[in-house]
Amino acid sequence: MNSAENKLNRSFRPARMSCRVALFDMDGTLVETDAANTAAYRVALAAFGIGLPRATSCRITGADVCRYTPNLSTVDLAAIARAKKTAYASALPLTWLGPATAALRESLQRRDLFARVVLLTESKACRAHETLRHHGLLECFDEIVCNGGRGDKYTNFFTTHAVDPADCVVWENEDSKVKSAITAGVKIENIRKVA
After folding, report:
1. Which of 28, 40, 148, 194 is the most buried (most CB within 10 A)?
2. Are 20 and 114 in contact (CB under 8 A)?
3. Helices 74-91 and 125-134 sit at what angle, rounded to 10 degrees?
4. Please, how many CA atoms are within 13 Å of residue 194, restricted to the half-sphere of its CB?
5. If you ran DSSP here, which 8-state letter would residue 72 be given?
6. Beta partners for 32?
């Protein structure tokens, strides 16, 4: 393990925290949603006579659906997205709390540590709210920011919010998003990489 990985994985206890913002990712960080997301896409695609291989267990995205079904029209793709949105509600029992949930609860109990607690997710707002509500986490956040795949979520957040990236602590599970947070100005020692 190199020194950067050590910094990312060590316990986080900064000295001055009263003005800090806690930024939590949702999928794979607070809540494990891959199985529910894939199940919802299976149902949506089946309505169009399209099957996913049974072994498909990783997260399926709208971009993946476009790659799997290059001959579908934009109207059909939009219908699949609507069907997936509907099917996701019945797939919520396939979700479970992720590894950063304890950190979220600590940040809520210790308001001396964080001035604001924010969910910053690539998820669409309806899915984020549904997922958080299912797990009793919806009221945990001062703000819920759903990027919805519109560019880099950290760059967008710091562009649209009066928040200094150096004053934020980030909980994130994806390496590419950790790099994105660092590029946006979050200090490496303020990143909690969730495995």
Report:
1. 40
2. yes
3. 10
4. 25
5. S
6. 96
For residue 2, the cross-strand partners are none
- In 128-167, which positions are buried (b, 16+ CB within 10 angstroms) versus exposed (e)? bebbbeebebeebbeebbbbeeeebbbbebbeebebebeb
Q: How far is CA 140 from CA 133, 178, 182, 184, in A?
A: 10, 23, 25, 25
* pTM, 2 dp: 0.83
Cα–Cα distance list, 126 to 4, 52, 55, 88, 116 (Å): 36, 24, 28, 10, 22
Banded pLDDT at 1 (limits 50, 70, 90): very low
Q: Tell me if 142 sits within 8 A of 130, measured CB to CB.
A: no
Tell me the two tokens of residue 81. 């997205």
